């Protein structure tokens, strides 16, 4: 069966395998293939594979003893895994339940199958779900060595952004002060603290903040993490001028919080600003908004990275600007 695979030299195989597995990208349902000094590592989501790795299509055998949903359905369903939850996105209820039944009968280690029942909505960025099989919407997601307890019905969380989160966190140095203005359950905050940073996470979703605190304990970094429930715009009194690094992952409306970000920024601060813009000019509006907020406060601006995270919709891109304020 042809699957997307990461192709690496044999000597790099184990390190790459572990890297993909830590990011929950390794496809455990198919075998790793060896050929002519190279390894082909099957992956679950080629779009999330780090850019420095090569992804190619390759025929790889199903792992011996494994039964996949496609074997039972006669077609290849689309799904993604979050811990022991499998998420599908089917408009037809009968088809959705057929897919869910096949997933539960297959060798996939699933406890629950959910179907998206609405778009992400509201200031707390949650969506509705149909529980097709199993019970509950809580699971533990593992990502690059960190563990996150998450309830998808109560808070926003996207496993597809694992690689982007890792890209940002790899820039964090021990001793930094990191402020995440829209922290959720902590997928930026927790790994930053694991790298030795002091981290503050704010979110308007009180339940997400409870989970962030639990995740800080789970990952052994509670002494370096402060979790605050509320609007990030109301935290600048205590943390004005505090941050060495700011994360603003609220791409539809981060520009509304830029004045607050500037107040939080220290004398030399890196801002990770997420945006969604038309492909004709994906970075210009964000850069202009940052300059408009920061320059009157006396900051010089240096755009260190212009990075496309993923395609969001036809002709629209989800992008990140890594910007130094100094």
Helix content: 10-25%
Biggest sheet features: 7 strands, mixed
Average pLDDT over all residues: 94
Which shape, going by the Cα principal axes? globular
Q: What is the structural class?
A: alpha/beta
Question: Treating each run of at least 4 consecutive H or I residues as one helix, how many helices?
Answer: 9
The arrangement of helices and strands along the chain is EHEEEHEEHEEEEHEHEHEHEHEHEE
Strand content: 25-35%
Biggest sheet: strand arrangement: 13-12-11-14-15-17-16
Rg for CA atoms: 21 Å
Oligomer: single chain
Number of domains: 3
What do we call the CATH homologous superfamily of the largest domain? Vaccinia Virus protein VP39
CATH class division of the largest domain: Alpha Beta
InterPro entries: MeTrfase_TRM5/TYW2, SAM-dependent_MTases_sf, TRM5-TYW2-like_MTfase, TRM5/TYW2-like_N, Trm5a/b_N
GO molecular function: tRNA methyltransferase activity
GO biological process, one term: tRNA N1-guanine methylation
Protein name: Wybutosine (YW) biosynthesis enzyme, Trm5 methyltransferase
Commentary on this structure:
The chain is α/β, with parallel strands linked by helices. The chain folds into three domains: 2-59, Alpha-Beta Plaits, CATH 3.30.70; 69-136, 2-Layer Sandwich (GMP Synthetase, Chain A, domain 3); 158-325, Vaccinia Virus protein VP39 (Rossmann fold, 3-Layer(aba) Sandwich). The chain is 24% helix and 34% strand. The protein is built from nine helices and 17 strands. The chain has helices at 13-22, 69-73, 93-105, 162-169, 189-194, 206-218, 236-239, 258-264, 284-294, and strands at residues 2-9, 33-35, 38-42, 54-59, 79-82, 85-88, 112-116, 129-133, 138-143, 146-151, 177-180, 198-203, 225-229, 243-248, 265-278, 301-313, 316-325. The strands form four sheets. Strands 13-12-11-14-15-17-16 form a seven-stranded mixed beta sheet. α6 (206-218) links the parallel β12 (198-203) and β13 (225-229). The longest helix has 13 residues, at 93-105. The protein is globular. The N and C termini lie far apart (52 Å). 39% of the residues are buried. The model has no long low-confidence stretch (mean pLDDT 94). It comes from Halapricum desulfuricans. Keywords: Cytoplasm, Methyltransferase, S-adenosyl-L-methionine, Transferase, tRNA processing. GO terms for molecular function: tRNA methyltransferase activity. Residues 79-326 form the SAM-dependent methyltransferase TRM5/TYW2-type domain. Pfam families: TRM5-TYW2_MTfase, Trm5_N, TYW2_N_2.
């Amino acid at each position: 069966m042809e699957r997307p695979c990461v192709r690496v030299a044999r000597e790099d195989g184990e390190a790459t395998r572990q890297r993909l597995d830590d990011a929950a990208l390794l496809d455990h349902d198919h075998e790793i293939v060896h050929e002519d000094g190279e390894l082909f590592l099957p992956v679950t989501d080629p779009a999330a594979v780090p850019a420095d790795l090569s992804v190619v299509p390759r025929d790889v055998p199903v792992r011996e003893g494994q039964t996949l949903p496609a074997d039972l359905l006669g077609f290849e369903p689309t799904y993604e895994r979050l811990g022991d939850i499998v998420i599908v996105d089917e408009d037809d209820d009968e088809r959705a339940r057929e897919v869910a039944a096949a997933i539960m009968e297959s060798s996939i280690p699933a406890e629950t199958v959910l179907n998206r029942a609405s778009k992400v909505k509201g200031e707390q960025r949650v969506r509705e779900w149909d529980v097709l099989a199993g019970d509950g919407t809580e699971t533990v997601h593992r990502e690059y060595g960190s563990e996150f307890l998450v309830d998808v019905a109560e808070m926003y969380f996207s496993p597809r952004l694992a690689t982007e989160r890792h890209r940002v966190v790899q820039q964090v140095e021990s001793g930094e002060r990191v402020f995440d203005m829209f922290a959720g359950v902590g997928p930026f905050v927790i790994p930053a603290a694991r790298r030795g940073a002091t981290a503050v996470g704010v979110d308007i979703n009180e339940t997400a903040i409870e989970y962030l605190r639990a995740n800080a304990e789970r990952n052994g970094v509670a002494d370096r993490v402060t979790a605050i429930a509320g609007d990030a715009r109301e935290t600048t009194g205590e943390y004005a001028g505090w941050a060495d690094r700011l994360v603003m992952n609220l791409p539809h409306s981060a520009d509304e919080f830029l004045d607050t970000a500037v107040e939080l920024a220290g004398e030399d601060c890196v801002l990770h600003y997420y945006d969604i813009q038309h492909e004709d000019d994906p970075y210009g509006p964000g850069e202009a908004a940052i300059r408009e907020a920061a320059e009157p406060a006396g900051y010089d601006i240096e755009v260190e990275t212009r990075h496309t995270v993923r395609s969001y919709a036809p002709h629209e891109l989800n992008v990140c600007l890594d910007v130094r304020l100094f």
